[in-house]
Amino acid sequence: MLYTTKTFPFEHEPKKAEIVLLGVPWDSTETGKSVKFGPLFIREAIKNLPGFDFESKQNVFEKFKFCDLGDLEIVYGNWKLTEKRIQDTIKEIKEINPKAFPVFLGGDHLISLGIINALKGKEKITVIHFDAHRDLMENWMGEKFSHITWAKRLLEEKGIELIQLGSRSSSKEEEKTAKKFRIKESLKGIKGKVYISVDLDVFDPSICPEVGTPEPLGMQQKEFFSLLKEICSKSKVIGLDLVECASDKVNLQTALIAANVFKKVLVWKKKE
Length: 272
Ligand SMILES: [Mn+2]
Prior knowledge:
Elements: E1 19-24, H1 38-47, E2 52-53, E3 58-59, H2 60-63, E4 66-71, H3 79-96, E5 101-106, H4 111-119, E6 125-130, H5 150-155, E7 160-165, H6 172-180, E8 193-199, H7 221-234, E9 236-243, H8 253-268
Parallel strand pairs: 1-4, 1-5, 5-9, 6-7, 6-8, 8-9
Antiparallel strand pairs: 2-3
């Protein structure tokens, strides 16, 4: 008998899993507090999560088969090589198990660019971007690939519609870009394939204080979770990331909230 523990009470091999978890501890472009240990502490929070959901009376750990792949081995300071590793890893996951629902733990927000580019196929997808910031800068001190510029790079890709929710910190340039690309700020009319990217600084700093770059006057939990429920009920969610978690101890709020976002997506997500 092996009395050992893993992230989930019942772990399955990647081929048979319905939910696949991957940490991406990249934070080389972070301009605030380090978010390198986000995957570690969100994972610890998931371990302590009760699978049973009061509202729906279902246990998410019984609803789905899980597999925790661990963390991606990143190339510190080199986005090009790290992005290639992100894309190769996602490609491999999709080859092993095309139906698996991938969940990514960050890391700074630049990782979402590599992830979304790897996940998108020929069909149009909607990216729902929860964030205090627009992340639409053309460059950051000359650097085109940063956690502040990733959404602008994403807009340059084909077949992506971007919806930004919770933004409250921006620049003149970013507002111009938002207008030019007709970025939506509501869920009106959403349908089809949706990818959800959650920068935890979308929440008010009183709720999620340990983030890379906190911004006052943020979203409250009630508003956030009702939007999340609406997304899951109206569209087909194809992936989720939880980024910018700067927790540096176990059981701090930000990682706990991130674990709850993960759980609620699984509660509301339809079983294939
Ligand atoms: Mn942000």
